[in-house]
Design a protein that fits this description.
Keywords: Membrane, Transmembrane, Transmembrane helix. The protein is mainly alpha-helical. About 85% of the residues lie in helices and about 0% in strands. About 20% of the residues are buried.
Length: about 180
């Protein structure tokens, strides 16, 4: 296994500051998960809105050039969905919660039904099915706040752990001493 490349003291300091910033931001995301979830919905809304605007512009150019296209209609859909995400992030998070919860309930029902056909692993499949259904119901009942909380906590934990990883890597790398000029 190859060792870590040497770092200058300046690079080490910058990397440590970045690691601390990541851990602080990750901690804030864990403390304020709902705000992070709402912010994530708004950021996705901005990206979808920009996709719609650019798609409409490209579609108009293609029509001016003589091409037949129906994609402009689809891009209006992007634009509308993006604006809704920006203006009503709680509503869209609520819809996401409903869809995700319904998915887990569906998977749970399928697992439960599969257990009836496969007696060798029936107990495991029934437990998996029951847990999936319970998770689905919990997600549906928690609504927008539950999904926002989940997004915020997962993002916060991930960012905090990445910061710890950067700190650990920087601490283990050898220092490269710069020659005096």
């Amino acid at each position: 296994m190859a060792g870590l490349a040497p770092m200058t003291e300046q690079a080490r300091t910058i990397a440590r500051l970045m690691a601390v910033a990541m851990m602080v931001l990750g901690g804030l995301a864990i403390i304020l998960p709902f705000a992070v979830g709402i912010a994530a919905a708004i950021i996705v809304g901005i990206a979808i809105t920009l996709t719609g605007v650019m798609g409409i512009a490209v579609s108009k150019r293609m029509k001016q050039a003589g091409y037949q296209t129906i994609s402009g209609f689809l891009y209006w859909g992007y634009l509308i969905v993006g604006v809704l995400l920006i203006l009503m992030p709680k509503l869209t998070l609520g819809l996401a919660a409903f869809m995700l919860g319904a998915f887990f309930v569906f998977i749970g029902v399928l697992s439960w039904r599969a257990a009836q056909n496969d007696l060798s692993a029936a107990t495991t499949k029934k437990v998996k099915g029951a847990l999936s259904m319970l998770l689905g119901v919990a997600i549906v009942l928690s609504g927008a706040s539950g999904i926002a909380w989940l997004i915020g906590v997962c993002f916060g934990v991930s960012l905090f752990m990445q910061g710890m990883n950067v700190w650990s890597t920087v601490s283990r790398s050898p220092v490269m001493f710069e020659a005096d000029s």
